[in-house]
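seq as requested:
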Amino acid sequence: MAFAGKYELESQENYVEFLEVIGLLSAKTDHKVVTEVAQDGNNFTWTQTIPNWTWSNKFTVGQECELVTMTGSKFKAPVTMEGGKISIQFPQYHFTAEISDDKLVMTCVTPGEKGVTFKRINKRI
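struct tokens:
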């Protein structure tokens, strides 16, 4: 149950660069994203919220799951966990999440020569 809780954005790296690479620069916001994670064993509900926008996925570690991108496109991908780190291959980037020093650390890495590593550190609230 290490992931369960509510978190608020504390710091981030390469946010604008990441949005540019995935074509979502118009979605840039200065609001602090709130991430809420519900965990029941290997079953998760992962929700991110800012005013006027909510993005949520339900998944089970160790299974292929139907997920939704930030733009609402559905896709299927296996969800894995190794060493306490959740890993999901989204269509445009590879997502990982882990708890480090009681903070939720999320990283999105885009592929290729001009790949970008976007990192968010979220504190428990």
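The chain has one domain: 5-124.
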